[in-house]
Please model this.
Amino acid sequence: MSERPERFIIDGKRLDGRSFDELRPIKIELSPLDRADGSCYLEWGRNKVMAAVYGPRELHPRHRQNMTRAVVQFRYNMASFSVDDRIRPGHNRRSIEISKVSREAFEPVIFTKFFPKTAIDVFVEVLRADAGTRTAGINAASLALADAGIPMRSLVSACAVGKVDGEIVLDLMKEEDNYGEADVPVAMTVGEEITLLQMDGHLTPKEFYKALELAKSGCRQVYELQRQALVEKYNKDYSVDEDDARSDAGGDSDE
Amino acid sequence: MGKTIVVPGDIVSDNIKMSGSGTYVRDGEVCAAVYGILNAGDRYISVIPLAGKYIPHANDRVIGIVTEVAYSNWIVDINAPYEGVLHISQYPQRIDVENMSRYLKVGDCILTMVKDVDAGMRVELSFRDRENRRLDDGRIITIDPTKMPRVIGRSGSMIRLLKSEIGCGMFVGQNGRIWINGNDDRIDLAIQTVKYIEDYAHTPGLTERVQAFLKAKQKTRYGRTHESAESVEHVKSAESTEGTDEVRNGNE
Model:
């Protein structure tokens, strides 16, 4: 665990040189997993998460089936090597809570009515953690769900805000998260309907509303990146096409 | 061709009467419900998904694999989140319950039709039709069910091309399973071609592309194995599912 820095804000900049309303860099890779119906690998600053979606598929045990809609199952898990001090593998209090709130961030968005009696399974593995893994996991899961062709009302975009040195800042990094005064993860749809809102720490009502607006602007930025990744996947496939078709045909005549 | 890709939540129209498949209405606007390609018609706007599972509907022709012989029913895997049930009375001839596995046993592949899907998603299969039968030869491959319309082509153009150019029997089930019959070389070629179609399903001019692909393939193949290619038996295959509306809609 790193030491508590003396000051979080120096000359109007944060520890990693970001301004108050700046996100850490995000990198998105779609469909890295062959065997999943949809998957997404996402890097957010120093976070690395992998999301996989399976389904809709038959749900067992049968008594958990819902006759009118699909059941969404969400598993958030941190790899034992994802943090500095190895953590015990498997579920713990924290991961069970995050799995639950993340599931609830998606349940209102997925058209579960289309697939009665089935399960839609979402798995999020945190490979490297550096504050904001639940929001990173939700962003990756949202893309994996879209990639799996699951009908949804909207993508879900998530982002955290917090308070350090008395300032409201967007997208906390590890030191800010560990020693800051507040941490507020938010997830929302394109229509700015909030599906996840938590708060750890203290904010005055005024600060809270300011934080919420900042979080929304962060989510909008994340949404643009998510959308871009989905559109580009298709465009990339498409342009690779032309070359592939030629090299395929050419390569075969050499055989 | 200007193909627009949409993601869930994108607003695609402000006329709610245009809402077609793959869309939903939110606050008086039509929005995309799936990640896919926008298909704007005169009367409806729909989104053709790029991925997804097969969901059975009545009158779908599917290829199933028997997974269980239960009392008076065969349980059939139809590549969907729901299992298919084929009742003994659906078999064209009268069968005694004790002898069921003499006709269809676990592991048998069948060409069958979805008779009915009830609200509880119980999928009843039919085996009465003359075209429904057990598949004893050939090979079955599985592709993404959302790509299936491209393998059939507009009113069956692609599947006709494949059958005549490759010289194999072929049946494309709506559940993404494809049965191919013929001599081994030809089946191999057919599988390669179908995989090629699956990979490039979202691109325009697919038929021309596949023609070029086949030409390049066959140039080498026929030079090497001309004789075996000549002696291929032409298997009379069940006609493709060309007539269904769903298929037609799926192809632009």
About this structure: Chain A has one domain: 14-239. The two ends of chain A are 58 Å apart (CA to CA).
